[in-house]
C-alpha cells in the first residue's frame, strides 16, 4: 500500500476554554449601537501597502491600529435564519424562551494576532475573536408574560447579553509568555468594552494602595 492510501490519525490536544457572558441593561438595538460605536471598523490602510509591496509602511500602519477593531462593517446576522427555522419547527418548540436575535462580530487586532501566530501557529485558529450579541425572548404560552428578573438583578421582558471565549484561554493557552501577555491584554480590553456597551459599570480594583 502506498503512503497516500495509508490511513492517517490526527493527534488532538485537549484545551480548556473559558466562556464569558456579559448581561445587558440595554436593549438589543442599544447594545448593538454601543458596541459598534466603541469598536471602530478596521482601517485597512495596511492592506494597500501590502498590495503594493511596501512592507515597512504596512508594518507602521498595523502598529497604529487601536487595540480592538471590527473586521466587517456589518456583523453576521442570524436573526432572519432563526425566524425562518422557527416557521418549520415552531410547532415543535415547547413553551418557554428561545434565541430570536443573534449577531456575530469578529473583533481583534491583526498586528497583535500576527505577533502571536509568529510565536505559536495554533493561535491563528482563534483570531479574530468572535463575539455574539444574543436576545432571548418568550414564546408560546409565555407571550403574555411582561417582565422577568434575572440572576443579576436585571429586569427585562427579553434577556440580552454578549458572549465570547476569553482570549487568554484560547490564544493564550500556549505556555509561551509573550503570547500569554498579549492575550491577557486582549482579555481586559474586550471585557471593558463589552461591559460599557452592555450599560454596566466597570468594577474598580480597590486592592491597590492609594498614593
Feature tags:
211 residues; alpha+beta; six-stranded antiparallel beta sheet; two-stranded antiparallel sheet; 7 helices; disordered C terminus
Account of the 3D structure:
This protein has helices spanning 28-38, 45-52, 55-63, 79-89, 110-119, 167-170, 177-197; strands spanning 19-23, 69-70, 76-77, 96-108, 129-139, 148-149, 155-156, 159-165. It is α+β, with helices and mostly antiparallel strands. Helix 1 (28-38) crosses helix 7 (177-197) and helix 2 runs antiparallel to helix 3. It is globular. The N and C termini lie far apart (74 Å). The relative contact order is 0.19.
Mean pLDDT: 84
Query: Roughly how many Å is the radius of gyration?
Result: 21 Å
Order of helices and strands: EHHHEEHEHEEEEHH
Report the β-strand fraction as a percent range. 15-25%
Instruction: Tell me the number of helical segments per DSSP (H or I, 4 or more residues long).
Output: 7
So what's the overall shape?
Answer: globular
Can you count the beta strands? 8
Q: CA-to-CA gap between the ends?
A: 74 Å
Q: Report the structural category.
A: alpha+beta
* Helix coverage percent: 25-40%
Low-confidence stretches: 140-156, 207-211
The major β-sheet equals: 6 strands, antiparallel
Amino acid at each position: 500500500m502506498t503512503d497516500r492510501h495509508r490511513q492517517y490519525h490526527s493527534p488532538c490536544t485537549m484545551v480548556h476554554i473559558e466562556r464569558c457572558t456579559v448581561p445587558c441593561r440595554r436593549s438589543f438595538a442599544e447594545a448593538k449601537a454601543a458596541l459598534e460605536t466603541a469598536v471602530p471598523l478596521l482601517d485597512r490602510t495596511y492592506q494597500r501597502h501590502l498590495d503594493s509591496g511596501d512592507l515597512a509602511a504596512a508594518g507602521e500602519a498595523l502598529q497604529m491600529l487601536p487595540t480592538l477593531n471590527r473586521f466587517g462593517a456589518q456583523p453576521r446576522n442570524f436573526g432572519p435564519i432563526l425566524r425562518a427555522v422557527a416557521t418549520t419547527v415552531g410547532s415543535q418548540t415547547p413553551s418557554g424562551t428561545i434565541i430570536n436575535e443573534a449577531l456575530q462580530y469578529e473583533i481583534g487586532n491583526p498586528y497583535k494576532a500576527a505577533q502571536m501566530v509568529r510565536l505559536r501557529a495554533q493561535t491563528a485558529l482563534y483570531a479574530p475573536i468572535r463575539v455574539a450579541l444574543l436576545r432571548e425572548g418568550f414564546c408560546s404560552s409565555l407571550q403574555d408574560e411582561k417582565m422577568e428578573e434575572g440572576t443579576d438583578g436585571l429586569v427585562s421582558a427579553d434577556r440580552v447579553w454578549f458572549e465570547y471565549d476569553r482570549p487568554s484561554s484560547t490564544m493564550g493557552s500556549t505556555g509561551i509568555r509573550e503570547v500569554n501577555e498579549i492575550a491577557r491584554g486582549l482579555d481586559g480590553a474586550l471585557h471593558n468594552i463589552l461591559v460599557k456597551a452592555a450599560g454596566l459599570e466597570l468594577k474598580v480594583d480597590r486592592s491597590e494602595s492609594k498614593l
